[in-house]
């Protein structure tokens, strides 16, 4: 279930951003953490990375690697939102599209951080225990040695 939830969140987040890449770039710039050129690259590339990771997790392919990458993304998101809050920026996180400046008091930093911590814990669990039923990389418990013995 965690694989589907984390994958679904990443797929939706990336899908909502990929339809308007300029807004995604604007959201990355609003954090004021990256130089303009790098913010543009991250703003354009992040939606595709989220979609790819989401799809890998949903189908259960390279689950451990995808979970580790998703966990790294969650840590980056937590650090970025915490940094924005600590510096007194009033921005929308841009997590599901949108982003940029918002009116003071209209931020939801605590909820965003809690959500991302929950997703990070899901990613950690999946990196530790990547096997799951109905995944492409599902281990059915039969190793090659057992098959060879049965055939003989």
- Mean of residue pLDDT? 90
- Helix/strand order, N-terminal first: HHHHEEHH
Give the tally of structural domains.
1
| Class inferred from helices and paired strands | mainly alpha
Instruction: Bin the helical content.
Output: 55-70%
What is the 3D shape?
globular
Query: If strands are numbered along the chain, what order do they take across the biggest sheet?
Result: 1-2
Contiguous runs where pLDDT drops below 50 for at least 5 residues: 142-149
Note the gap between the termini: 39 Å
What is the percentage of strand-forming residues?
A: under 5%
Could you explain how this protein is built, in words?
The chain is mainly alpha-helical and 152 residues long. It has one domain. It is built from 6 helices and 2 strands. The chain has helices at residues 2-18, 21-30, 36-59, 63-86, 109-128, 144-151, and strands spanning 91-92, 100-101. A two-stranded antiparallel sheet has the order 1-2. α1 (2-18) runs antiparallel to α3 (36-59) and α4 runs antiparallel to α5. Mean pLDDT is 90; it is low at 142-149. Residues 2-128 form the Methylamine utilisation protein MauE domain.
Q: Key features?
A:
68% helix, 152 residues, single chain, Methylamine_util_MauE, mainly alpha, Methylamine utilisation protein MauE domain-containing protein, transmembrane, transmembrane helix, two-stranded antiparallel ribbon
Provide a short characterization of the protein structure.
This protein is an all-alpha fold.
Tell me the layout of helices and strands.
Layout: H1 2-18, H2 21-30, H3 36-59, H4 63-86, E1 91-92, E2 100-101, H5 109-128, H6 144-151
Antiparallel strand pairs: 1-2
């Amino acid at each position: 279930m965690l694989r589907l939830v984390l994958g679904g969140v990443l797929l939706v987040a990336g899908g909502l951003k990929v339809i308007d890449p300029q807004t995604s770039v604007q959201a990355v710039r609003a954090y004021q953490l990256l130089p303009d050129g790098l913010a543009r690259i991250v703003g354009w590339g992040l939606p595709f990375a989220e979609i790819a990771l989401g799809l890998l997790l949903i189908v259960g392919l390279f689950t451990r690697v995808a979970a580790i990458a998703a966990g790294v993304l969650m840590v980056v998101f937590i650090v970025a939102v915490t940094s924005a809050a600590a510096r007194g920026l009033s921005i929308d996180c841009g997590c599901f599209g949108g982003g940029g400046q918002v009116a003071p008091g209209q931020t939801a930093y605590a909820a965003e951080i809690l959500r991302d911590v929950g997703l990070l814990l899901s990613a950690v669990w999946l990196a530790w225990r990547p096997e799951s039923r109905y995944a492409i990389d599902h281990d059915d418990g039969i190793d090659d040695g057992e098959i060879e013995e049965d055939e003989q």
